[in-house]
Design goal:
alpha/beta, Rossmann fold, seven-stranded mixed beta sheet, two-stranded antiparallel sheet, 8 helices, globular
Length: 249
Amino acid sequence: MRTWPRVSAVLLALAAWVIAPAVAPAGAQEIPVDVELVLAVDVSASIDGGEVNLQRVGYVQALTDPGVINAMLSGPLGRVAVTYVEWSVTQRITVGWTVIASAADAAAFAVAVDANPIPKGGLTSITGALDFTAALFDANGIEGTRHVIDLSADGRDSRGLEEEVSAARDRALAKGITINGLVINPQQEQTEVEGVKYDLDGYFREVVIGGPGAFTVVTESPADFPRAVINKLVLEIASRDVFRPAGNM
């Protein structure tokens, strides 16, 4: 059951006004922010309705958490830019680029995320998700000190080609983007191939994440998800000197 209350039409209209796309007109100066962050959320068919809903609720709650808001507003410029993408074999921008410079901005972004219907997922294409989200930093009217993709998944790429996933990662890294991972219930993905045991956390560290201070956060249970999302967002948004070395948390 959703734990985030539905909002009135008036509040939704206000949210739509507050989160109008943060794209500068042609020839205008780009908006400087401390970080540009893509929240790339797995809604593939391998994630059941409860997990999809859990992610939505977790992000909505995290975006209005005092610790996350403090991180957003505490950088040198005092503002960040965020966009929310849901992906499976295809990708959808659920809420476009939004500059968050106040608690009210964060709340409006959270309302907009929650107001959108959850799409029906297909296969899991991490390759497609990385290529799609990496392109979102181009010509978006924003100039971030850092570019970060926060990608969640509960399984590996459905095509099973690790070299394609790592190639997509490398294309993003070549553009100066950092990729962090949110691993959902990795114990469900432990398999054994030719006597070698693979797990989703290790897969993420091997072929998905990368860039300065890249890391994964692992959620072991549904109850752990909100805490994991809050901690992850604080680390991603905070200044680079608080980032942990690449690896899992």
